[in-house]
Write a structure and sequence with these properties.
- The chain is mainly β.
- 6% of the residues lie in helices and 43% in strands.
- It contains four helices and 37 strands.
Length: 578
């Protein structure tokens, strides 16, 4: 009763405060709620709880840290508050799996306990040293509230579960130089070995510039900072959670982080603290100069390429030697308020792990859910050669629409009715254009796609759709949207219109594919050719559990054909992390 009384008192206080919409951040950008940080859940609200996305039974999670494959097991570490449903009291939680789907929770691997991390154990990475010896690099907040880079090693590396970790007293390994911003120096990457040295990156900021600092070491214990940044970009702010790795020029297989040569490109990804989005570039790594140079055609800034054009942040990739692939994890934060997170007793999920590889033209990365996810597929339904005229919406019945995997292929008979792309829209990014041209706005070629998490009478729905524009000459632009505007009748939510353009040529192949993973409060979608991904967090009030429905729809004057649609009810994993 004392806990319940305290919860009600704090919740009443919160209701009197300014309402805070949060798609917010780690570190200084995290909204800090001291009154909530150690407030345990009275009862976990299951209404919007995901079934097959990775999440704890209760409390807050954020960044995936140091995923790795070791001893026949996948290890995932992640930022976790063991005491409450908002950011605070952060430890490195630890779960293991044989298949990246069914997880077993272990005790936290790292928690604040030493002078070099007494005020926080923040994000980092894992590296496998020669002799198959795992080591963790992580950011600690020391007694002076500086961000310093530490390491931890297993207490017993013969324990394949790596249950216990030691933080040696020769920490920290790296401290901020004099004159550096000691509160903007964090998130060490997986290290790589080249030319007789280990090398790693640490994210930072210099005035308005985002910076990746490079450090080198011969023995992994003594690190020297390069005289110049490994890479930086103006007007991007703090670079969090940097990730740097090679991809082969040809093929879907992955590469170890230390792989280098003429047959690879390198990926440089950063998470932008100011925008809460990520972007990446592809380019060339010059190890002799300790520099990375992006390809000239790519934007190196806020409007650059993104893994995901929705709610996706603080991502981390790793090389999976068991299946020779590179796997990407990302964090999807809540889009409700911190007060509501406290009330429901949980916050944050990890997106479905994705395989990442380079597109055949070398212009972008491609992503697709790991094949192991398909083991959760249950009841299957199909829909073939379904024509959709203007205003049509057809229900897909026979599955659990709130917990489903949907794969659909649309055929476009003609491009003649594509809307002209208004030159005034060139100043708009895809997200703002989607807000202007939503699913309810009639068009020529589109909008058409899926209505996910929909109520029976469409009072609520989250559409994932395409709209095709005709640009200059014979070129066509394909806009892909995941629009949360109509996702809930609840008003005090962040309900954005997420969107990205899809780089496809429709002149010879007039088909668009779409795969959506629907899991109660998340819709994770993958566009044509695995080129564009969008994740939305939504909170319907009517379209929940058995009351959720799934439709295909068309609101364009050109008739669209559903050439094929396959949908599966998704089962929950046998075990879920704690």
């Amino acid at each position: 009763m004392d806990t319940l009384k305290k919860f009600l008192q704090v919740l009443l206080l919160a209701c009197c405060c300014v309402f805070v919409i949060k798609n917010d951040a780690v570190e200084a950008s995290h909204n800090v709620y001291p009154e909530f940080q150690s407030l345990a859940a009275v009862k976990v609200n299951q209404v919007h709880r995901t079934a097959f996305h990775f999440r704890p039974p209760s409390n807050w999670i954020n960044d995936p840290n140091g995923p790795m494959y070791f001893g026949g097991l996948y290890h995932l570490f992640y930022q976790y508050n063991p005491k409450g449903a908002v950011w605070g009291n952060i430890v490195w939680a630890h779960s293991v799996s044989k298949d990246l789907i069914n997880w077993e929770a272990l005790e936290p691997a790292i928690y604040p306990s030493k002078p070099f991390d007494i005020n926080g154990c923040w994000s980092g990475s894992a590296t496998i040293l020669p002799g198959n010896k795992p080591i963790i690099l992580y950011t600690g907040i020391d007694r002076q509230n500086r961000q310093v880079q530490n390491y931890a090693i297993p207490a017993n590396s013969s324990d394949l579960y790596l249950r216990k970790w030691i933080k040696p007293d020769n920490n920290p390994l790296v401290v901020p130089d004099a004159g550096m911003n000691a509160t903007a120096f964090r998130d060490p990457t997986t290290a790589w070995w080249i030319d007789g040295h280990w090398k790693m990156l640490v994210g930072g900021k210099r005035k308005h510039r985002g910076v990746a600092h490079l450090y080198r070491s011969k023995d992994f214990m003594h690190w020297v900072k390069a005289h110049h940044p490994f890479h930086s970009a103006p007007h991007t702010g703090m670079w969090e959670c940097p990730d740097f790795y090679p991809v082969p020029l040809d093929g879907k297989f992955g590469l170890d982080t230390s792989n280098f040569g003429a047959d690879v490109k390198h990926v440089m990804k950063v998470s932008l603290d100011e925008t809460r989005y990520e972007y990446y570039t592809l380019g060339k790594y010059f190890p002799e100069k300790d520099r990375y140079v992006p390809d000239k055609a790519l934007v190196d800034g806020w409007s650059g390429l993104r893994y995901d054009y929705g709610n996706f942040y603080a991502s981390k990739s790793f090389f999976d030697p068991a299946k020779s692939r590179r796997i990407l994890w990302g964090w999807a934060n809540e889009s409700d308020t911190s007060q509501e997170d406290v009330a429901k007793g949980w916050a944050g999920i990890q997106t479905i792990p994705r395989v990442v590889w380079l597109s055949p033209d070398g212009k972008q990365l491609l992503q697709w859910p790991i094949e192991e996810l398909e083991t959760l597929r249950g009841q299957k339904v199909e829909l073939n050669i379904q024509k959709l005229k203007l205003g049509d919406y057809v229900e897909v019945k026979g599955i659990t629409a709130a917990q489903a995997d949907v794969d659909v292929l649309f055929t476009i008979p003609s491009l003649d009715k594509a809307e002209d792309f208004n030159p005034s829209w060139t100043s708009l990014d895809a997200q703002r254009l989607c807000g202007l041209k939503g699913s309810k706005i009639q068009g020529g070629l589109g909008p058409f796609g899926l209505l996910t998490l929909a109520s029976q009478n469409l009072e609520e729905f989250t559409p994932v759709f395409f709209r095709i524009f005709k640009a200059q000459g014979s070129r066509h632009l394909v806009l892909m949207c995941s629009d949360a505007t109509s996702s809930s009748l609840q008003n005090n939510l962040y309900k954005p219109s997420f969107a990205g353009f899809v780089d496809v040529d429709l002149t010879s192949y007039k088909k668009l594919s779409l795969r959506s993973l629907i899991d109660h409060s998340v819709v994770e979608s993958f566009g044509p050719g695995a080129k564009t991904c969008i994740t939305s967090r939504v909170y319907p009030t009517l379209a929940v559990n058995k009351e959720a429905h799934l439709f295909v729809f068309n609101n364009g004057t050109e008739t669209i054909t559903v050439e094929s649609l396959t949908a599966w009810s998704m089962n929950a994993p046998q075990q879920m992390n704690a």
